[in-house]
Task: inverse folding
């Protein structure tokens, strides 16, 4: 592995920060997604948050209260030897309604303090500009990314970050898991549907607006500082064919194309032929402005960020048999793989396959910005947490990552496993679905002391970083 490899960890503001109205912050779309029976329908944009009953629990409001524990948490990152920390900025902490002319100084000061603290511990900040959250006012007033006005609101927001943190932050990502817009529209992009709307047309028009916003942000960033490294970010994981039947192979190929759609535009600078044909078949005609295609073409990203939790499988012969779910993507169960408690199939070799697919396709550096195992950890009587299953999962994935770099020639910037500290699960809203090296005393209902304690994996990952991966290498 390269000597400057960025080992670290990752979180999102809406799953970790809390302080949902502190420091002048406004409400974000994620702040109105409850835990429990209504969560899925709201995330899918099928039920309006305004129609929910009172008394529901909203886990983003406190999350793990990183807002007040931030220095303590960064000290733990420093103790592990982190080289990088990938985190997101809460848009509504900077522009509470999204429409202000000037950013909220208290919000900018919070993140500047956080960045300075990271730099003091020699940790490279890696910022996701938009990680699933949109100022709620922009949803209520404009319909979020359904509306072209969002491009300018986003550009103003991104510019405020670029200008304030110029010289302190080098790595940026415009949108987290941008392809999630097609799968969980409200959670991913603040999109819901009116009765009678063509949902597919709405989603692809919204996608165009996000892609234009990403290209415009890239342009603004490079004008401010040409050394900024701007990345895209996709929820990745290759689709396998269930059998060698040509129709299965074709179906897997088509599913992979669908998943690459956003990154094809952000990295290659134009809409791919397969997507144009799909929209033609669906009768979708994107509304564009003069200069849109040129903006996309001239402002492609520098690197490809991606999350990887599991591979996927599709078949055409018996497509409804034995379906499981991994990171929101329904998939046939692969008989060769084990699965986590939440049904996510564990496939370390799939990481190497995915890395090769992305590197071959785009010929740009990759950055693994999410990877991890959600599990229900047990605190022993002596307070210890023996998460050997997490160590086994990450060790196997790191080994395949090393092989992709050293044997296959993949150019990889860094590795920031998801939820280096326990945080609220985005998909389920639970705390018991834990990913971290650090345990947070908090239950699904928000009860607990918020006290942080180290798991067995804490010292294990510390050694991985100290040896640049050599401590877990398997020949």
Result:
């Amino acid at each position: 592995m390269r000597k400057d490899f960025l080992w670290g960890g990752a979180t999102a503001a809406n799953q970790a920060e809390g302080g949902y109205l502190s420091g002048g912050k406004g409400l974000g779309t994620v702040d109105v997604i409850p835990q429990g029976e209504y969560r899925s329908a709201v995330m899918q944009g099928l039920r309006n948050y305004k129609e929910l009953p009172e008394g529901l629990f909203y886990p983003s409001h406190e999350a793990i209260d990183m807002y007040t524990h931030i220095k303590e948490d960064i000290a733990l990152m420093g103790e592990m030897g982190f080289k990088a920390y990938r985190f997101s900025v809460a848009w509504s902490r900077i522009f509470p309604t999204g429409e202000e002319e000037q950013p909220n100084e208290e919000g900018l000061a919070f993140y500047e303090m956080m960045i300075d603290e990271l730099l003091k511990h020699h940790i490279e900040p890696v910022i996701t500009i938009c990680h699933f959250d949109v100022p709620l006012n922009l949803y209520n007033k404009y319909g979020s990314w359904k509306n072209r006005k969002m491009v300018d609101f986003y550009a103003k927001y991104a510019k405020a970050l670029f200008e304030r943190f110029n010289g302190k932050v080098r790595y940026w990502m415009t949108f987290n898991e941008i392809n999630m817009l097609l799968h969980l529209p409200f959670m991913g992009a603040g999109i819901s549907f009116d009765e009678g709307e063509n949902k597919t047309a709405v989603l692809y028009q919204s996608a165009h607006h996000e892609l234009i916003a990403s290209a415009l942000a890239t342009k603004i960033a490079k004008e401010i500082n040409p050394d900024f490294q701007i990345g895209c970010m996709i929820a990745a994981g290759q689709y396998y064919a269930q059998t060698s039947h040509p129709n299965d192979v074709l179906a897997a190929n088509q599913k992979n194309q669908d998943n690459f759609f956003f990154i094809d535009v952000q990295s290659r600078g134009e809409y791919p032929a397969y997507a144009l044909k799909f929209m033609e078949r669906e009768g979708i005609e994107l509304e564009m402005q003069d200069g849109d295609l040129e903006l996309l073409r001239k402002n492609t990203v520098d690197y490809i960020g991606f999350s990887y939790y599991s591979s996927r499988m599709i078949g055409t012969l018996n497509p409804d048999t034995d379906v499981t779910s991994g990171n929101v993507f329904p998939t046939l169960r692969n008989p060769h793989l084990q699965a986590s408690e939440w049904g996510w199939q564990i496939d370390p070799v799939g990481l190497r396959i995915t890395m090769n697919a992305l590197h071959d396709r785009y010929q740009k550096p990759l950055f693994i910005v999410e990877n991890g195992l959600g599990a229900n950890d047990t605190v022993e009587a002596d307070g210890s947490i023996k998460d050997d299953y997490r160590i086994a999962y990450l060790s196997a994935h790191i080994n395949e990552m090393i092989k992709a770099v050293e044997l296959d020639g993949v150019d990889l910037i860094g590795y920031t496993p998801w939820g280096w500290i326990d945080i609220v699960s985005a998909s389920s809203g639970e705390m018991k679905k834990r990913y971290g090296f650090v345990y947070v005393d908090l239950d699904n209902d928000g009860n607990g002391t918020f006290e942080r304690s180290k798991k067995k994996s804490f010292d294990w990952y510390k050694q991985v970083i100290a040896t640049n991966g050599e401590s877990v290498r398997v020949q």
Remarks:
- The chain has a mean pLDDT of 96.
